[in-house]
Structures are given as C-alpha cells and as structure tokens.
Amino acid sequence: MSLTSTIGIDIGSTAAKAAVLDGSELLGTFVCPTGFSSFDAAERIAELLRAEGFDPEVSPCVATGYGRVAVPFADKVVTEITCHGRGAGNLFGDEGTVVDVGGQDTKVIVLRGGKVAKFAMNDKCSAGTGKFLEIMANRLGVSQEELARLARTGAPTSISSMCTVFAESEVISLIGKGTPREDIAYGVIESVVEKVSVLARQGKGAPYFLTGGLCENDYFIERLGARLGAAVSTSPEARFAGAIGAALLAAEVGKRGNA
User: Fold this and answer.
1) Most confident listed range (25-39, 112-126, 190-204)
2) Mean pLDDT for the stretch of residues 51-79
3) Average pLDDT in the 171-179 region?
C-alpha cells in the first residue's frame, strides 16, 4: 500500500464503488451491489480494498453517495454533487456539463474552472434513470446489454409516461399487442434519452461528460449525443467519478486524528 494513497467510497442506491488514488494516479477501482443495507455494502467494499492491500482505516478516506453516512471508517462525508463534479473534472477537464445517470436519480453538474457552478437534479421519479432501464429490461426478459442491442434495430415507438409504474403499463400493453421486442426496446431507451437530455440542457452545454452506470452503454451514449446535438464523452472509469472525486478530496482532508 502506498503511503500517499487516498480512498473514495461512493455508496449508491444500486452499487457501492471505491477508488484508490496516489495523487492523481488511479491505482484501482472496486464495485459491489449495494443490496439491502448500505452498512453491509460499506463493509464489503472495505473487504475488497483490504484484499488488494488498501486499508480505509489507515489511508485517508472520504465517503459520498446515497449511503455515505453508513461508512463508519470514513474521515469525512461529502455530497454527491461535489464528488461527482471533482471526479469528472479529473477525468475529462475543468469546463463542461456533467450528466450523471444513477440508479435512482439523474444529476447535471456545470463545471467552471474545475468547480461546481450549478447543478440540477431529477430525483422525483426513476423514469429517467438506470433503474428504469433495469425494470424494463426485466419486463422484456433481457439484460440491459441485450436491450440496447435490440433497440438498435427497433422502429420508433413511443413510451410517454413520466412515471415508471405507468410506463411499465405501457410496455405491458405493447407486449400484449404483439409489438416486436426491438421496437419496445427502442421506445424504452429513447424515453430515458429524452428525459436525460431535457435535464442536461439546463447545464452549460457542450462539452458533455457522462458519468454513472450507463458509461459503457454505447447505444445510449450515441442517442444522447444525437438528442443534444453534441458528442458525449465518457470512459469506463467515469462510472467511478463519485468515488474518484471523494478520493481526491480525501487527500485534502487527511486522516482523522492525524491532521
């Protein structure tokens, strides 16, 4: 374990993530399902870290996310907005609009000079989030990866409800009518793209950076960019933007009791 390593832990509603940095160098990332208990997820993440030689009770550690207060070994807890902004700035640059599609909410963060200038958030309904895609994929009996593959060949199909429950009823109705799965998949992803793009337009504009669980969904990224009229940059590491931002902040916080 590097004596200068810092740890960021992001306990989200769907997944718990951790990032370890040495300065600005990313040493490793870790992820596990959050499950029922954020406290249990925090301990599972700690076990994954220790198995690779990183001890969150020794290295400076900052926690963020939905379950940040459930991380007993964190030296400080910091809001998701601050951590995601800091992490995205480290990955992509100090100016632009960060779009974070999480399990239960979607956030848009405007970066200016590497700092959060403003933000907007949709946390009233999961219809524009990763959870919506998970629910709809399950309803169609496919994985989220298969949902995206099907959507590429689907015909335009409207799913207009703003509520996940009503949107699921629309999908059930389409299934009952014999609508091809490809067309339903198209409508499902387009529905999320539309809701996310409306929120994203409240930001600064291009460049756009995507963080969160859809960073490796190429079809979603393509459709979001087309809807916004600008390319959307992302990377596999962007899923860990919150944890990376927390680890960067941990370097400033130091270890509790040793500052």
Assistant:
1) 25-39
2) 95
3) 92
Confidence of residue 213 (pLDDT cuts 50, 70, 90): confident
28: exposed, middle or buried (C-beta count within 10 Å: 0-12, 13-18, 19+)? middle
pTM above 0.85, yes or no: yes
**Contact (Cβ atoms closer than 8 angstroms) between residue 243 and residue 78:** no
Q: Are 164 and 126 in contact (CB under 8 A)?
A: yes
Measured distance CA(106)–CA(128) in Å, rounded: 7
Distance CA 151, CA 189 (A): 7
Q: Which of 97, 101, 133 is nearest to 242 (CA)?
A: 101
CA distance 171 to 101: 22
Neighbours of 229 (CB within 10 A): 10
Residue from 257, 247, 238, 231 nearest 92 by CA: 238
Amino acid at 28: G
**How high is the pLDDT of residue 88?**
95
Sheet holding 5-11, edge to edge: 25-33, 15-22, 5-11, 61-64, 76-77
Structure confidence by residue, pLDDT tens digits, 177-187: 999 999 999 99
3-state secondary structure of 23: coil
- Please give the sequence-ordered ranges of beta strands (E in DSSP) within 144-215, or none if there are none: 208-212
Q: Where are the beta strands (DSSP E) in 71-212?
A: 76-77, 96-101, 106-112, 115-122, 208-212
Strand order in the sheet with 115-122: 115-122, 106-112, 96-101, 208-212, 232-233
Residue 243 has pLDDT above 70, yes or no: yes
Please determine, for residue 123, whether its predicted confidence score (pLDDT) is greater than 70: no
What is the separation, in whole angstroms, between the first and last Cα of the chain? Answer: 20
